[in-house]
UniProtKB/TrEMBL annotation:
It catalyses: shikimate + NADP(+) = 3-dehydroshikimate + NADPH + H(+). This is Shikimate dehydrogenase (NADP(+)). Belongs to the shikimate dehydrogenase family. It holds the Pfam family SDH_C. Residues 19-101 form the Shikimate dehydrogenase substrate binding N-terminal domain. Pathway: Metabolic intermediate biosynthesis; chorismate biosynthesis; chorismate from D-erythrose 4-phosphate and phosphoenolpyruvate: step 4/7. GO terms for molecular function: shikimate 3-dehydrogenase (NADP+) activity. The gene is aroE.
Amino acid sequence: MSSDMHRSPITGKTRLLGVIGDPIGHSLSPVMHNQAIASLGVDAVYVAFPVKPADLTKAMDGFAAVEVLGLSVTIPHKQAVMPLLADISDVARSVGAVNTLWRTDRGWAGTNTDVDGFVAPLKALRAHWQGATALVLGTGGAARAVIAGAKLLGCDRVVVAGRDPQKLAALQQHFGPPNPLAIALETLVWSDLDRVLPSADLLVNSTPVGMHPLAADSPLSIAQLALLPPSSIVYDLIYTPRPTRFLQMAGDRGLQTIDGLEMLVQQGAVALSRWLGQPAPVAVMRSAVEAFLAPRS
């Protein structure tokens, strides 16, 4: 990262931002946001807070008590935190998950910027997604943002694969009417994946499988990836390690791949703009993460 990015000293007036999750040690959000904050000359700092699911309520009360300005939310809190919020944006209600919080006079408010982050690199690759089939791996909060993003892109068919039939049924119900992003969502259990892979134009891993420190894992096998059409795009929302084993295997088969870095940057830029009330330096944020992830000599 550039050495000419001068960080203001932390003072008694420094505003506090952060990210909550469990685990959270892998998060590169502090790298990205602190470099952006430094480039803007803003008196703020962004840190990672490990919050266990059982501690979420008291943690949120504590963050409000010490006047934390805003929070990013990651696995496993994107849905669990919603009942604790005083206000939720329409897009977050449509998705059924939040990833960005800020304080208001009435309490915490939340929205979902993951949808913006998810679709940004896909729009750059293809102008039109009509007629496409999107296959989503996973049933958590990130999967909901992917489903909403696929709908907004214009994909005609969205299929979600998971291991828990109850979670699959809940997703199908959530994205039915009267959801503004209602879609005729198809679901299938994990053991039936192979019958859909040959028709998938877009394959998205929204599970944590393959995330550091379990970097040797992959949600699918080499044989399963071989079932995809040659024109398929394989997208992993994970950005550390880079590439994941999943994307490495897909790339070895000649498939186009996207990792979670651009989604991280784009969703983070929307969040930072909301917290600070000014445009976020997207190029600075991207360069900060890329520099941090670059192999050390």
